[in-house]
Here is the input.
Amino acid sequence: MPRDGASDEKALVRIRLESDAGGEKQEQSLEGEWYSKNRTIYLRYEETEGANLVRTLLSWKDGRLRLVRQGDVESEQIFSAGGRHSGYYRSDNVQFRWRRRRLFSES
Here is the structure.
């Protein structure tokens, strides 16, 4: 049940992912779920490549975007205007962490 006047909504969505890795462009069309819960907007979808599966969850609240990937690749990235955030990336081949200073700032 919604709290504080927030409405909870859900919808199935089609997502188009475009990537450019090392000059190789790829495009994927995926199905996902968009929903709103407790004043946060979420987008959830799964990517498969061969036997590999990665579940992705994007969340947006109060000017902050959080990207979490789980499965054969695991990572977390957070973005906000002028924010300083840390993150990580893990796969079978590589693992690293980072701390980002100000990504950008609003004028």
